[in-house]
Write a structure and sequence with these properties.
The protein is α/β, with parallel strands linked by helices. The chain has 2 domains: about 5-120 and about 195-205, Rossmann fold (3-Layer(aba) Sandwich), CATH 3.40.50; about 125-185, no CATH class. The protein contains 8 helices and 4 strands. It has helices at about 25-35, 50-55, 80-90, 125-130, 140-150, 160-170, 180-185, 195-205, and strands spanning about 15-20, 40-45, 70-75, 110-115.
């Protein structure tokens, strides 16, 4: 990386880009791409869901963007209308957004939007999707359930229960890591789970 140049302004190496929230997502998708055999994807992080309006447009002025054929954008659902929020940003960038979640437009570049954890999965974020890939009879999930029951009785329980569950699950693994992305690199999430089918179908457009 040259000096203090914004990572989003780094020259684009491949003609397919995946824009994600942060390092955790970059690690997760890097591991998932390797697992499903999708290569040569330029993964760029914007620095958090609130940074998309300001940071996503930076990609368009990066060296090599004119050669990009596909741009996929993934962010957590959270509490706002995440899909429409990204669509509005894409329009301001003079890019053609998809008509629906999980789809790609026919413009140049073709643009797709996926809101985590997907339309068929309950929850609001990547952590919810990862937890759903783990079998209920996994011994570590018993620890997760017991811990969740315990913290629910606290006067000031964690505000983000999904993140708390993920941390508990990861703490129960042979080699402890502290994030879903690093957990993905350790193969702690089941990339063969049918829970990931919707996401894999979306990412398949980047082959």
């Amino acid at each position: 990386m040259e000096g203090n140049l914004d990572p989003l302004l780094q020259p684009i190496e491949f003609n397919k880009i995946l824009a994600v929230e942060g390092q955790d997502e970059e690690n997760f998708f890097g591991a998932l791409f390797r697992h499903i055999g999708i290569l040569n994807i330029d993964i760029r992080q914007v620095g958090g869901k609130n940074q998309f309006p300001r940071k996503l447009p930076v990609l368009k002025v990066s060296t090599g963007f004119n050669n990009v054929t596909h741009l996929a954008v993934v962010r957590d659902r959270n509490s706002d209308n995440a899909f429409q929020s990204i669509v509005n940003i894409l329009k301001r960038m003079d890019l053609t957004p998809p008509d629906e979640h999980g789809g790609f437009s026919s413009g140049k570049p073709k643009v797709g939007v996926f809101i985590m954890p997907g339309e068929t999965i309950g929850g609001t974020m990547l952590e919810d999707l990862c937890l759903r890939t783990v079998r209920e009879d996994d011994p570590a999930m018993k620890c997760v359930r017991e811990f969740t029951s315990c913290i629910s009785e606290l006067e000031n329980p964690p505000k983000n229960i999904s993140k708390a569950k993920v941390q508990t699950f990861l703490a129960a693994q042979p080699e402890i890591v502290n994030s879903v992305g690093l957990g993905a690199e350790k193969n702690y999430w089941d990339f063969e789970s049918s829970v990931l089918d919707e996401l894999k179908q979306f990412l398949g457009n980047l082959r």
